[in-house]
Amino acid sequence: MSATTAATQTVNVKGTPFAYRELGPAAGVPLVLLHHVTAVLDDWDPALIDALAAERRVILVDLRGVGASGGTTPDTFEAMADDAVAFLDALGLDVVDLLGYSLGGIVAQVVVQRNPDRVRRIVLAATTPAGAQGPAATGALLQDAVQKATEQGKHPKHFLFFEPSSSGQDAANAFLARLETRTQDDRDTPISNETVGAQLTALTKWEQDTSPAALATVEHPALVVNGDNDTMWPTAGTLQLARLLPNAKLAVYPDSGHGGIFQYHEVFAQQTLDFLRG
Description:
Strand order of the largest sheet: 1-2-4-3-5-6-7-8
Structural class: alpha/beta
Strand content: 15-25%
Mean pLDDT: 96
GO molecular function: hydrolase activity
CATH class: Alpha Beta
Number of domains: 1
CATH superfamily: Alpha/Beta hydrolase fold, catalytic domain
Radius of gyration: 17 Å
Keywords: Hydrolase
Shape: globular
Distance between the termini: 26 Å
Largest sheet: 8 strands, mixed
Number of helices: 10
Domain AB hydrolase-1: 30-262
Protein name: Alpha/beta hydrolase
Order of helices and strands: EEEHEHEHEHHHHEHEHH
CATH topology: Rossmann fold
Organism: Streptomyces sulfonofaciens
CATH architecture: 3-Layer(aba) Sandwich
Low-confidence stretches: none
């Protein structure tokens, strides 16, 4: 089984069906991945997932209202984090490792603060602490990227996730090609405008109404990564996040942005596996 063939399954989470996929060996602490803003299951890089699943049980999930999952997406990260924990309960998972990317990295931060006993180790990619500059402008950045993509015949992720350099755009093309390898009759449901709106509201609240002070109490081992020039959520926020977490390791990838983990998927996968081995 691979990321491109793993079946989409559903589990009842307090009366709401949540869509998920899993692959990899059954033994060991599961690694649960939390998605970025606007993403569904199909937006995870299959090359990255396969590399992680070579060693770990990997579980991808659409949170409430996302993709094929039912319900309405909440507009706070506290509620999203509660949904993530309820998903773990539904699968009978007591303790997991979390990998949160972008918006998913914020959800992961809240999960580990509110439910520290449910998490062993945490990987935070292209994300930012509460109060840091960037998330509130996400809606405007998305609109600008869509306009540029339409004008230039490209995908919005060419502009949102990757550098304009030749190496950055080559990486974008390779990443987008990998996303298309998923079995065509088992694609996830595209994200709705309603869900994106709720996510953007949550991001604005995260920047404007919350404080990162509680991160100082998170004693879990953390791996914090990003590209060196994230133009969606400035890399400075990632550096701040690594400083705030008492037990964090930091990795920054050159000539890359918000999608650095996809541009350097082999490096990131190896760093993650090494980190999770402890």
